[in-house]
Write a structure and sequence with these properties.
heterodimer; A: alpha+beta; Ubiquitin-like (UB roll); Rossmann fold; 23 strands; B: 449 residues; Cytochrome-c3 Hydrogenase, chain B; binds iron/sulfur cluster; binds FE2/S2 (inorganic) cluster
């Protein structure tokens, strides 16, 4: 169509339609907007004037850094040149030839992704010659492509589909049979390959080489028989393997966990943070019909760049399975508890708590590192109120046991709790750890225990064995996401909402306070930890209408203000957790965007 | 009678002292002569306007408020009229619309442009194709492809549109006749409407909610014998239509109910934003098809009938004549329609043929992208207007460049005309509300959009 400027109407459509594909998505609709990065550390200062050069891009003068990647300059100025093999997080091999543009003075078209810019360069990206080549490259790519879209997991977010519709959009001219290649090849524990759909861009190979550092994939054969393969006797099993599925521009690599479960365009996306470890990779939660279907990494150059580990992707399963969905109250000591409403359980907990306070005796408060800062801040406020009433209070920070074997220098950390830094700060300097908690329980030093999150650094079996320690307590209140042996021995068992069901923040190992957004409704009767603490405090007459009791956002604001007041102004977030808190920002609220309209993938 | 056993036991009373058949046969029904006589011999008076001169039957009255609707058997359309009446006279009224609200405009923001068509079917649901066409033209205007639409598609749009106009007017006229007591014209007109709808059903697959028009053309070509069958159907309709006309136009009762009732002046009609047959009944010859021709309307000869008084009868007569003019347009369109494609050949706007979709990856992707992402319409805003069944049907669309409207507003003629209802019935009798409301032809789906 674009080659036929003879028809004024048609070329006006071309111009009109091209307009619509170039501008970047509006920020409000972009789920990829990194939003919870700490303020102050982000802006990269503009390069000095001497390093800048001016090029002419489609007749427009633009300035950029000398030697910058031409494709990146084009994208930064809203010029879409179409590409497959380039990826901002990977090296550029220039193998797909989809990004060819014209540089005045050069006889051949050059791949934009492999061309550093120089002063006074004149670049044309939309001349008839460039557009024809662009279309011919797509035609080439599609010659042997199977008619698979209806059964392809990538459909709806497929880059090949997008480029075809934007730049080719004419029917097939080929009548020879397609070359067939193996379909449904098992590459490893998480991934299936369909070689027919592969467009040989090598992005997946580079992810393994450059991100995971394990050379597991390679190309074999030549010409139209060329195909991706793993080395004989090996598997695609590195801990970052599922990133290959994300970078694959087509549906060649599919995740065994996700394939055939949900159509991509029906998913809604909510940005959040992975609860898998102390790194806090930024993720998009993809959900529909009140269920989470997958997690994919969200770009944040300061934390996880474009990646996340395979284990983190499965963090959503914990939201679905083994949940505590209703409140129970009972006599403790492992005797059967009785299911009741959350309100009744809260009232029961408050009444017993008040009785305990008036009778004297030490009350332990457990700050779980799996819980949001806001809930823990609320607990610290309650601790202050209890102390003011003359109760003796001991704080403990608990969480899941570290797993040193998973630590690497890429993303994965040994600490598998997402909020250790936050929990430690909010519990206060005198707080004990899980070991201290067990020691105090064994010694019978505690009369009551209130656990906001029942996570302990013990396996299930070990937890089962220590659970009877809790029998010496007069009151055990447990707010928990999942069922556990310890929970079963509690007097009050309250169902808490999981990470994807609440608004709040986690503080990662780099002291960055990052925002979680509520993607789905809590299961069963579950309520946010913050809400449960708020209500118990209200019922027990500890705090009535304080700011932190209003909403997660108010709790966050109060928390940040209080932490910041202890610091000298301008503290460096890298130096202390508190400074990280002081620099935190709650970010904007936006409605979940349906992927088909999010314009973000494919 | 003397031979029956009944005569021995005496005649059996039916109810409330009504005469039995026996009594009637025997003549001399007791009691009737005892009823009070009216002061003036009404039978000498010839029409209703003279009746009003009879002043000596004044009864003491006081204003009272009553509800007419929202669910009233004699109003076609769900509307609530809160009346303040003094005896039989309407002293004040509050016309409340909104009982059929289905969020057309909001729904459109969550649907791709193609997915909006089924919603437009449900605006004015007695002429869905006119709405289809109106919406398609608006999107095409925004895309800048108006002139590129294949000629055959433009003719088909005119043909199905004019058929819809006829069915719209038939519904309005038939129902209104029925509401003032003429049941036969209703049955006959609905019969004609059914013939036409059968034709449309054969063409589009649906009797009422056609969703037949597409951005860039229409979804499929006319069926093989469509033209022949349309011609036959129109010929066949002429006779019952003429009969209906005879039954109504010279009908004393009908005329008394329509003449001089619900009068509107041309100035007021314009001031209130009236369009369509209602505006034309006041004598203003404004018709979008003539004044701002779209599609191929400039290629047809047809007249724009206007009234002189602006009363219910004029609105009736204008619609009746418009049915004839639509038939005239149809006849010319059937003669002129050229062969050719019915959908624009532009893969980023129109679906590729199914055969190609199933067999080549290129068309498969094109199909997929159009369904999932929708037609990418360049950012901008547009107001596009056509002659709908009830007047100027306008679509105002704002696009942000995505596959669905950022905002979609309908200027629905019914909504604007209905705002004058209170004015029309002020001072009229309660019974006058029905024909007036009928002739305004409020269509709930369109009014409440
Ligand atoms: S990779 Fe893309 S184009 Fe190919 S079958 Fe899958 S969705 Fe269709
Ligand atoms: S499998 Fe995907 S990412 Fe890997 S080379 Fe093929 S198309 Fe590229
Ligand atoms: S993106 Fe430049 S060659 Fe592939």
């Amino acid at each position: 169509m674009a080659e036929s400027p003879s028809s004024p109407i048609k070329s006006s459509i071309a111009a009109a339609l091209r307009e619509t594909v170039s501008p970047p998505p509006p920020p409000a609709a972009s789920p990829a907007a990194p939003s919870a990065a700490p303020a102050g550390s982000a802006p990269s200062s503009a390069p000095p004037q001497s390093e800048l050069c001016t090029i002419k891009l489609d007749g427009r003068e633009v300035q950029a850094k000398k030697g910058a990647n031409l494709l990146e300059v084009c994208l930064a100025h809203g010029v879409d040149v179409s590409y497959f093999c380039y990826h901002p997080g990977l090296s550029s091999p220039a193998v797909c030839r989809q990004c060819l543009v014209e540089v005045v003075g050069q006889p051949k078209l050059v791949p934009a992704c492999f061309t550093p810019i120089a002063d006074k360069m004149e670049v044309n990206t939309a001349t008839p010659r460039v557009l024809t080549i662009r279309r011919q490259m797509l035609e080439f790519t599609l010659v042997n492509h199977p008619v698979d879209c209806p059964i392809c997991d990538k459909a709806g977010e497929c880059t090949l589909q997008k480029q075809y519709q934007d730049w080719d959009h004419v029917g097939s001219r080929s009548s020879i049979p397609k070359v067939h290649k193996p379909k449904m090849q098992d590459l490893g524990p998480h991934i299936v390959l369909d070689s027919e759909r592969c467009i040989l861009c090598t992005r997946c190979i580079r992810v393994c080489d450059e991100v995971a550092g394990q050379k597991q994939l390679t190309m074999a054969w030549r010409g139209d028989r060329e195909q991706l393969t793993v080395a004989p006797g090996h598997q695609l099993d590195n801990p970052y393997s599922l990133n290959t599925v994300d970078v694959c521009p087509v549906g060649a690599l599919t995740s065994k966990d996700f394939r055939f479960t949900m159509r991509a365009w029906e998913l809604f996306t909510t940005s959040s943070v992975c609860p898998g470890c102390a790194t806090g990779c930024n993720v998009e939660v993809h959900h529909a019909q009140g269920e989470i279907w997958r997690l994919v990494p969200r770009e944040n150059l300061q934390v996880n760049k474009y990646w996340m580990c395979d284990e983190g992707r499965f963090a959503y399963k914990d939201v679905r399975h083994k949940r505590l969905t209703s409140a129970r109250i009972g006599a403790g000591r492992g005797q059967p508890a009785q299911i009741t409403s959350v309100d009744k359980a809260v009232a029961f907990a408050a009444e017993r708590l008040e009785r305990l306070v008036s009778s004297g005796g030490t009350i332990g408060l457990v700050y779980s590192a799996q819980t949001t800062n806001e809930a823990l801040f609320a607990l610290s406020q309650v601790a202050a109120k209890l102390t003011a009433r003359g109760a003796s209070v001991r704080a403990y920070v608990s969480g899941a046991a570290p797993r040193p074997e998973r630590a690497d220098n890429i993303l994965r950390s040994a600490d598998v709790n997402p909020n250790t830094a936050g929990a430690k700060l909010l519990a206060g300097v005198g707080a004990g750890d899980a070991k201290a908690l067990l020691a105090d329980l064994t010694a019978g030093k505690l009369k009551g225990l209130w656990m906001v999150g029942t996570d302990l650094p013990l396996g299930e079996q070990a937890e089962f064995e220590i659970a009877p320690l809790a029998d010496g307590l007069e009151l055990l209140i447990c707010q928990a996401v999942h069922d556990s042996p310890l929970l079963r021995r509690a007097h009050v068992q309250l169902p808490a909402a999981a990470w994807a069901e609440v608004d709040g923040t986690f503080t990662n190992a780099k002291h960055m306070v990052q925002r979680l957004r509520k993607a789905v409704a809590p299961q069963g009767d579950a309520r946010a930890h913050l809400e449960l603490v708020t209500q118990i405090a209200k019922k027990a007459n500890l705090a009535q209408n304080e700011k932190w009791q209003v909403s997660a956002r108010q709790a966050f604001l109060q928390m940040v203000a209080e932490v910041a007041s202890t610091l000298p102004p301008g503290a460096d977030p890298a130096q202390s957790v508190a400074a990280g808190f002081a620099a935190a920002d709650w970010g904007k609220e936006f409605l979940p965007v349906q992927l088909r309209f999010a314009n973000s993938r494919g | 009678m003397s031979t029956t056993t009944q005569s021995k036991t005496g005649p059996r009373k039916l109810a409330f002292g009504m005469p039995t058949p026996d009594e009637i046969a025997a003549g001399g029904i007791p009691g009737l002569s005892a009823r009070p006589k009216l002061p003036v011999d009404l039978m000498d008076k010839l029409n209703a306007s003279e009746l009003e001169e009879v002043e000596d039957i004044e009864l003491p009255t006081e204003p009272m408020q009553i509800n007419m609707g929202p669910s009233h058997p004699a109003t076609h359309g769900t509307v609530r009229i809160v009346l303040t009446i003094d005896g039989e006279t309407v002293r004040d009224s509050d016309v409340q619309v909104g009982y059929l609200h289905r969020c057309f405009e909001k729904e459109a923001e969550y649907a791709t442009y193609t997915q909006v068509f089924p919603y437009t079917d449900r605006l004015n649901y007695v002429s869905p194709l006119l709405n289809n066409v109106g919406f398609a033209l608006a999107v095409e205007k925004l895309l800048g492809i108006g002139a590129a639409i294949p000629e055959r598609a433009q003719y088909i749009r005119v043909i199905v549109g004019e058929i819809s106009r006829i069915t719209d007017h038939l519904t309005c006229l038939g129902a209104s006749a029925m509401e003032v007591g003429g049941f036969t014209p209703f049955l006959w007109m609905i019969k004609i409407r059914e013939w036409l709808w059968e034709l449309l059903e054969e063409l589009t697959g649906a009797r009422l909610t056609h969703s037949y028009v597409r951005v860039g053309g229409v979804s499929q070509d006319l069926t093989e014998d469509f033209i022949a069958r349309l011609r036959a159907t129109l010929n066949r309709s002429l006779e019952p239509l003429a009969e209906c006309e005879k039954l109504l136009v010279k009908n004393r009762i009908f005329r008394d109910r329509m003449d001089g009732v619900g009068t509107m002046s041309a100035e007021d009609a314009i001031a209130m934003g009236w369009t369509g047959p209602c505006l034309r009944s006041t004598g203003v010859p404004y018709d979008v098809r003539k004044d701002h021709p779209y599609l191929v309307y400039d290629r047809f000869e047809f007249d724009v009938p206007v009234g002189s008084v602006g009363d219910n009868y004029d609105r009736f007569a204008v619609r009746l004549e418009e049915i004839r003019q639509s038939m005239r347009i149809l006849e010319q369109a059937m003669q002129q329609i050229p062969p050719g494609p019915v959908l624009l050949d532009e893969p980023r706007i129109c679906m590729p043929p199914k055969n190609a979709v199933y067999n080549t990856i290129e068309s498969m992707i094109g199909h997929f992208k159009l369904i999932v992402d929708g037609i990418k319409v360049p950012p901008g805003e547009v107001y596009s207007y056509t002659e709908g069944g009830n007047g100027e049907l306008g679509f105002y669309i704002v696009s942000d460049g995505s596959g669905r409207p950022y905002r979609c507003h309908v200027r629905s003629p019914s909504f604007i005309i209905t705002q004058s209802m209170s004015k029309l019935i002020l001072g009229a009798g309660i019974a006058d509300i029905i024909p007036t409301f009928g002739m305004i032809n409020m269509i709930g789906g369109e009014c409440d959009r």
